[in-house]
Design a protein that fits this description.
The complex is a heterodimer of chains A (314) and B (344). Chain A has 314 residues and is an alpha/beta fold. Chain A is built from 12 helices and 10 strands. Chain B starts with 10 loop residues before the first helix and ends in a 5-residue tail after the last helix.
Chain lengths: 314, 344
């Protein structure tokens, strides 16, 4: 008796599913063309360096950005109006449509819930690309830049992807010019300067091979962590090593994460002996600017330039 | 355990342990991420003692006295605290695999540290950062929660042990949840959990010294009582020892030492298991011997482990938890094998 009932219920359920399978669904709203965009450039195929290519049939109008750098770039090239949601770490510019989506632990369902026609992310974690492919959402993967050219390439790609190619090209040209000019106009230090770039208060740092390291390299600065490069590009330095190296410049990229400041590092054991501390060449950076590879790299370059100018005088 | 060998602490065992500790301290003073030159370091120490002139520059002197020395002393304190607590836990639970983190100290400290890293990252102008305080409170809170639950479920060490497992799982789950919500703090929390003495200063030494020293004195004084406990609760009662109160005192002292150690150095594993077992094999299983020798041995072991941590990949640091687990894990298996088949 009971088994008959179950069978009937199962059949009814299957029937319902079959019916709903035939049901019509609301189509996505027709893409609204953004003013100033060149709509004629679609379909477009985008091939990030080293990544898989993505083809967009139409200009995307519902973009989800899962990475603060992409968010900054999208808004800087005038594609902000096409962005419907950004991840919980995106905080610049101030008026971004921040959501509780996570780029570290992406949840495919939650992302799909925003009904996106393009997702921009920096990592393919938790089956992001595969999961979104099942619901036919293209994902443009733009991993962390390893050199300055990657920044320009990624901004250009975002320009093509959003139909803001001209703005993207203008932005990269402007960035290039400003960075080159800033580097060129920075007075040459009277001696070779060394620096320590701090990622957190446990002395994690980055070598000159990293993206940020190359920025310092443009000014001819020498990284004290390079001798520790055998343990990766982001080694944890020994406190003894830092004091012994006596860097001319200390850059703190842990002012937000770990509350560090020029004043607080001066009170660390042994640090009162450091040249950078004595001469006031401990530079507090904005963690966000120092860890992203978007349009605000220009600001970072300017901060470094000011620091080099000051430290190079004495 | 296999019955009591009621020996006293022999002078030669004590002497041997102190010699090992002295060697560890000496090696640790002379070796570091930066090679100051052993003869120059000795000359500096001699100069400090006699008021003479030292070959070291100001900065090199700062490396020696403000970075290396506090690190050695703190390593010694943490190692001593963890090993002596481990010995005490093994005595109380009459279980060779007991360690100081058994009652939720590690999980509680981990939760405390994670919450601070995730939610209150920028308060630093305190005497100590918020992280050690939160880790300490978490560790103490975890143990307190375990003992409350264990008591409400009934007397005896078995319920306490089970309560400890439940509390540790619960706190770890909570920590994972907080971490999941704040994935950007992952590296910071992870670094802390692997343990390290890389940022040690005299401040931390002063902070934990009184508590670890106090706990060590209490535990050393309890050696005979722990020996009596190994006979079983009834026997102990007939010898005039109140097993319940006894256990509470020992666990409170051991947990205090553990919480202090964890608060300044993160979660350093295996010291609390490995050291008491080595001592037991070399010098005897009596807690009158085991507790004081574990204290000295633990200090020596962690100081040596830290020498490896800061010199193996110098000038990079290796997390000290990796060093202790790398030597501790194979030893743990060895202990498992040799104690297999014996009574718990």
């Amino acid at each position: 008796m009971q088994s008959t009932f179950r069978r009937l219920a199962a059949v009814a359920l299957l029937g319902a599913l079959a019916v709903s399978g035939c049901a019509n669904r609301e189509r996505n709203a027709a893409p609204t063309t953004t003013p100033g965009a060149t709509a004629a450039t679609f379909p477009v195929e985008l091939t990030p360096p080293g990544g898989r290519s993505v083809t967009l049939a139409e200009q995307p109008s519902r973009i989800v950005s899962l990475n603060p750098t992409s968010t900054e770039s999208l808004f800087a090239i005038g594609a902000g109006e096409q962005v419907v949601a950004v991840d919980d770490q995106s905080n610049f510019p101030a008026d971004v449509p921040r959501s509780d989506l996570s780029g570290f632990q992406p949840n495919v369902e939650a992302i799909a819930g925003h009904n996106p026609d393009l997702v921009v992310a920096s990592n393919d974690t938790a089956g992001l690309v595969e999961g979104l492919a099942k619901v036919k959402v293209p994902v443009l993967l733009l991993p962390a830049a390893t050199k300055l050219d990657d920044v320009y390439t990624q901004i250009s790609l975002l320009g093509k992807a959003t139909g803001h190619g001209a703005q993207a090209d203008a932005l990269t040209r402007q960035m290039r010019d400003q960075i080159e000019k800033t580097v060129r106009d920075t007075p040459k230090p009277s001696k070779d300067l060394t620096y320590y770039h701090e990622l957190d208060d446990k002395f994690f740092t980055s070598t000159s091979k990293t993206f940020i390291g190359q920025i310092y390299g443009q000014f001819g600065l020498h990284n004290i962590a390079d001798s520790a490069g055998g343990t990766g590009d982001y080694p944890q330095l020994s406190a003894e090593k830092i004091v012994d190296s006596n860097p001319d410049l200390v850059f703190l990229a842990d002012t937000k994460c770990c509350g560090q400041s020029a004043q607080s590092v001066g009170t660390r054991p042994g640090w009162s002996e450091l040249a950078a501390v004595r001469k006031g060449d401990v530079v507090a950076l904005d963690d966000d600017i120092a860890s992203r590879w978007g349009p605000r790299v220009v600001d970072l370059v300017r901060t470094v330039s000011d620091a080099v100018t000051k430290a190079g005088k004495n | 355990m296999t019955g009591v060998t009621a020996t006293r602490l022999r002078a030669r065992h004590l002497l041997l342990a102190l010699v090992v500790l002295a060697i560890a301290v000496t090696a640790s003073t002379l070796l570091g991420a930066i090679d100051l030159g052993w003869h120059r370091v000795l000359a500096e120490i001699w100069a400090q003692l006699t008021g003479g002139t030292s070959p070291l520059s100001e900065r090199e002197a700062a490396i020696l006295w403000q970075l290396r020395m506090p690190r050695i002393v703190l390593g010694g304190l943490v190692g001593a605290g963890l090993a002596v607590s481990g010995a005490a836990f093994q005595g109380v639970f009459r279980n060779p695999l007991a360690d100081p983190y058994l009652l939720g100290a590690a999980a509680g400290a981990g939760l405390g540290a994670t919450i601070v890293v995730a939610l209150a990252p920028s308060a630093t102008n305190w005497f100590v950062g918020p992280l050690p305080i939160a880790a300490f409170l978490g560790a103490v809170g975890g143990v307190a929660l375990t003992s409350l639950l264990g008591r409400s479920a009934g007397a005896g060490t078995a319920t306490l042990l089970l309560a400890g497992i439940a509390v540790a799982s619960f706190l770890t789950a909570t920590q994972t949840f907080v971490l999941q919500l704040n994935a950007e703090t992952l590296r910071q929390v992870y670094t802390w959990m692997l343990g390290g003495l890389g940022t040690a200063g005299w401040q931390q030494v002063l902070l934990v010294l009184p508590y670890i020293a106090g706990a060590a004195v209490v535990l050393c004084a309890c050696g005979r009582l722990l020996d009596v406990l190994t006979l079983g609760d009834e026997e102990a009662g007939s010898l005039g020892v109140n097993p319940g109160r006894m256990r509470l005192l020992v666990l409170a002292a051991a947990s205090l030492a553990t919480a202090c150690a964890v608060s300044v150095s993160g979660l350093i594993g295996f010291v609390g298991i490995v050291v008491p077992h080595v001592v037991r094999m070399l010098a005897g299983a009596s807690y009158r011997v085991l507790v004081p020798l574990s204290l000295i041995g633990g200090a020596a072991f962690l100081i040596v482990a830290d020498v490896v941590a800061r010199t193996a990949f110098a000038p990079s640091e290796l997390p000290i938890g990796v060093v202790t687990a790398f030597t501790g894990a194979p030893f743990f298996l060895f202990v498992l094998r040799t104690t297999r088949g014996r009574t718990r």
